[in-house]
Structures are given as C-alpha cells and as structure tokens.
Write a structure and sequence with these properties.
heterodimer, A: mainly alpha, 2 domains, B: mainly alpha, Serine Threonine Protein Phosphatase 5, Tetratricopeptide repeat, about 80% helix
Chain lengths: ~290, ~280
C-alpha cells in the first residue's frame, strides 16, 4: 500500500515539475529578457503606445534573427512616423516583391516621398510606374497632383488635377488652382516708382494706407519746416529738417518696395497654410493603413 | 502524503515566482545603472521594458517615478508630469504619494506653470496626511515664486520655514535691489531723463535731459519769433517725441535693471546654491 502511494507521489511530483517548468518557459521573463520573441512583444507594445523611436529599435533587433514582413512594415512605418524618411523608403522597398503587404508598402513608399517634400521625385516615380500599385493607383495619382500645390512647379491642366479628387471638394480646389496659377502679387518696382512721384503712394498701393498717409505727411512737413527755417535764416535747423525730409523721402521709396515684397510673402504664406490645412484635415485623401 | 504534496507545491510556486522576480531585479539594476550614468533615453527604454514584463506590477511606482525623472532631466516636462502622475496613482504609502506629488510641483516650477505649482502646494497643505511636511511645501512654494520672479512672496514662503533661511535672505536682497518701474516713469514725467538716471543709466538720462532742453528751446524760440506753425510742429514732432521717449526709456531701463538683478540671483541659485533645486 505504501509503495503504491509513493509511486503516485513520485508521478504527481514529476508531473508538477514538468508543468511548472513549461509554464515558466512561457513567461516573458523566462530566460533572456532580450530574446527575439521578447523584443518583438515589447516592440509591439511600444508601437501601439506610439513610441515609434524605441519600437523601431526593438524591431530592428528582432529582424536580425527573424524574418517577418509585418514587422518590416511596422519598422518602416515607425521610421516614417519619426521622420527618418530614407530608412522608411528603404524598408518599404524591401516589401515590394513577394510580400502580402506589397500594395500597402508601395502606397506608403509614395507617401514617404511626399512627406519628405521631395515632390519632383514623387512625380517622376509616379510617371515611371516602376513601383506602381494596382490597389492604390488612384491614391498615388492623387498624391502626385496634390504635390503641385506644395512647390513652385508649373501647374498641369486644371482638369487633369481636378479629376482625381471627389466632387465635394472641387470648388475649393478650383479656388486653390486659380490662386496658385494667378497669384495676386504686387510689384516692388511699381511700388518704388509710385513713391518716387508721390511719397506714400507705393505704400497705399500695397495696402498700407495708414503708413502711406503718414509718410506723405512726414515728408511734406519736414520739407516745409526746412523751407521756413531757411527763409527765417536759421541755417542749422534748415539743414537739419532738409536731412530729415531726404531721409523720409528715400526711406519711403525703399519701404514701399519692401512693403510689396512683404505683401507677396504674406500672400504666399497664407496660401501655403490654407492648402496645407485643407489637405491635412482630409488626411491628404489617403486611406488609414496600419498593421 | 497530503502535507508533502502541499509543501512541494508551495515550494515550486515560490521558486517559480522567485525566478521571474530574479530576471526583473536584474533588469531593474540595469535600468538604474543607465539612469545613474545619466543615459536617460536608454534608461527610459529599459524602465519601459521592465514595466512591460513586470506582470505583477511590483516595480510600478519605482518605474513611473524614474521615467518621470528621466523626462524631467531631458526637459520633457509634459511627459515627466504624466509619469509622476502615474507614480502618484501607484504609490503604496503616504511618503511615495508625497514624493510623486512634490515632483509634479517641481516639474511645474521648471516649466513655468507657476499657478499649477502653487495650486498643488495648496492641495498638499490642506491634505491632513501631510501636516508634518509644511516646511517642504513652503520650500517648493518659495521656489515657484522665485521662478515666477515674485521675490517678495518667495521671501515670505521661506520665512515660514526659518526666519534666517538662506533663500529667504537671498529673496529679500533681490527684492530690495530691484527698482520701481512706476516710480521711474513718474519722475520722468516731471523731469525727462530722471527715470533713466534712477535706473542706473546716467549717460542716457543726461542725454535725454539735453535733447529735451534743446527741442524745448526750439519750440519756445519759434513761438517768440511768431512762427506759430513751426512751433507747433517742432513741439509735436521733436520735443514731444523726446519727452515721450524719456518716459518709455525710463520704463525699459527699469525693467532691464530688474531683469539683471533677478538673473544675478538665479545664476547664484543655479551655480552656487547647494540645497535641493526643482
């Protein structure tokens, strides 16, 4: 009876040890905390937590030992999110052939080039169609035409640009297209010439009405003071006000030209801001892709 | 038989847990070493790894606190406050609660969100659990006032700790060394340039007096010679310009002087003060 009990005890003991060891091996903390599997788990956690820089490091280490397309995609996307565009492009390219994520990688490849502001390359690559995607062809084409609003390249035909976008935004895009094609700039030369003949007129031409009137009054008054002081035989004061009048006159010509440049820069800045906000609010008409 | 079986089960469970804890302790030491050698970026990574694998949440408070310290050292104050708040939530006793809360106050002081720092100081003061820690609360309240450039209130806060407190004396000296911006402006209304002289800009003040006298003479002279329009225009364009300029300068010089005084004290605190800093 005792031998039978001992046997049962030994079997139970053996079974328990095996069970616990198996369970222990399943723990992430078992063995090396830096093992590829543990790095992958930790990397995925960081990725979901949007800590992309650290996630990329974990994925990179994991991929030294293992091969996994989803993780390569995540690594590339992490680089993309933290602005390491060259590394992102390299990793997306690695998924172009023989991967289930090929189509998504191709779209994100074009997105990366777009967001690193390399619009010329984007258009060239889109035209060459070496890396074209059948699933996201429309999105890539749209990115290509969108890029024209962000740099100084000559705009293609209006219909070509507009046909890639939904009907709901057509009127806004026509407006942007017209603003881009025919910007309402002011000529610095015209502003300077106007101020040469009538002090302050150049400023009024650039929309600075208050400044223009002030300049006119300041120049006229100092000139008048110079004349009256010379007439009263106050030579020093006469020359002092003459100098001031000349200073106001010359300064106004220079200021008018500068004002036209500032006006143009402001128009350009506002346009760029408006366009960026418009596309940003619509996520650049791109689908949300995440694995 | 049952006793032996239970004993083995308990022993195995203990060993099983101990083994897992062992790995976490090694990881904790590794992260602490990185923290101590000021490699804050790597330390955060390792603390986060420890937190991820610490399924029993044994190290939760320490990890959050340390990550908060790393972010604070890297001037990422928003992240630091976030992790100190996590630490506060995972605090296991009153001391840990107080420490994490004071760290939030210190981070708020550094990121110049003084109102929030003062609000948190008030909250701590009202909390009866921390009745014995009023000195520490007043200390950080004083620092909050220092970084908000309110040296008078800083002195009052430090005085509550000790009437001879080093920082109380420094704050008082700084406050006394400052000049009154309003007074500088008012005396400039009466005598243009006086405000600049009061703020320590003697040459500028004397020049201001000179320009005002000269332009005043031109104005009066024009009226005496019956050139009324000349007089009005000179008074408006020249004399009043210098007069207003003197008042504006007085304000600017006074503010500049006060900034110099504050910066001198802040430099002392940064480089020579030995006590705890935010």
């Amino acid at each position: 009876m005792k031998t039978k009990t001992n046997k049962r005890f030994i079997v139970a003991f053996f079974f328990l040890i095996v069970l616990l060891n198996t369970a222990n091996c399943q723990l992430p903390t078992a063995g090396n905390i830096f093992s590829p599997q543990n790095r992958l788990q930790f990397g995925n956690f960081l990725y979901k937590d949007r800590d992309y820089l650290r996630a990329a490091e974990e994925f990179k280490e994991y991929l030294k030992n293992e091969s996994n397309d989803t993780i390569v995609f995540r690594l590339a996307n992490s680089y993309f999110k933290i602005g390491l565009f060259t590394e992102a492009v390299d990793n997306f390219k690695g998924l172009f052939f023989g991967s289930q994520l090929s189509e998504e990688a191709r779209l994100l490849f074009y997105e990366t080039i777009f967001f690193r502001n390399d619009y010329k390359s984007l258009r060239e690559l889109a035209d060459e169609k070496n890396y074209s995607s059948s699933k996201f062809a429309k999105e890539i084409e749209r990115l290509k035409y969108m890029s024209y609003f962000f740099d100084n390249s000559a705009l293609p035909d209006e219909n070509l640009v507009l046909k890639n976008f939904p009907d709901t935004v057509q009127s806004r895009l026509v407006n942007f297209y017209q603003q881009k094609k025919f910007p309402q700039h002011k000529s610095p030369t015209t502003a300077a010439i106007l101020s040469t003949f009538i002090p302050g007129a150049g400023k009024i031409y650039t929309g600075e009405v208050g400044d223009g009137i002030t300049s006119l009054i300041a120049t006229a008054l100092t000139t008048y003071l110079a004349v009256t002081n010379f007439n009263a035989d106050h030579q020093f004061r006469g020359w002092l006000f003459s100098g001031l009048a000349a200073f106001f006159y010359a300064g106004n010509i220079y200021g008018s030209a500068a004002s036209a440049q500032i006006y143009n820069a402001r128009i350009q800045f506002n346009f760029n801001k408006e366009v960026k906000l418009f596309f940003e609010q619509r996520n650049y008409f791109l689908p949300k892709i995440d694995y | 038989m049952k006793i032996r079986f239970t004993a083995i089960l308990l022993l195995s469970t203990f060993l099983f847990t101990a083994k897992a804890q062992d790995h976490l302790l090694i990881q904790s030491d590794y992260a602490n070493n990185l923290f101590n050698s000021k490699q804050y970026y790597d330390a955060i990574t390792e603390y986060k790894r420890l937190q991820f694998f610490d399924s029993t949440k044994t190290f939760n408070y320490e990890i959050n606190y340390k990550i908060g310290e790393c972010y604070k050292a890297g001037a990422k104050y928003d992240d630091a406050v976030k992790y100190f708040s996590f630490a506060e939530l995972s605090a296991r006793n009153e001391d840990e609660h107080f420490d994490s809360k004071t760290q939030i106050i210190r981070t708020n002081i550094l990121r110049r969100t003084t109102d929030r720092a003062l609000q948190l100081c008030d909250e701590l003061e009202k909390d009866q659990r921390f009745n014995g820690k009023s000195d520490q609360i007043n200390y950080w309240r004083g620092w909050a006032f220092i970084l908000a450039d309110n040296w008078e209130y800083a002195a009052k806060s430090f005085a509550k700790i000790n009437s001879n407190h080093e920082l109380k004396i420094l704050a008082e000296q700084t406050d006394k060394a400052k000049v009154s911006v309003t007074f500088a402006k008012v005396i400039s209304y009466i005598l243009p340039g006086a405000g600049a002289i009061y703020s320590g800009k003697i040459l500028s003040g004397l020049m201001s007096i000179g320009w005002n006298l000269l332009s005043g003479y031109w104005t009066v002279n024009s009226f005496i010679e019956d050139r009324v329009f000349d007089g009005v225009v000179v008074a408006e364009l020249v004399w009043l310009r210098f007069y207003r300029g003197a008042i504006q300068n007085a304000e600017e010089f006074a503010l500049e002087k006060n900034l110099e005084v504050s910066n001198k004290s802040l430099r002392y605190l940064q480089n020579e003060y030995k006590g705890i800093k935010p």
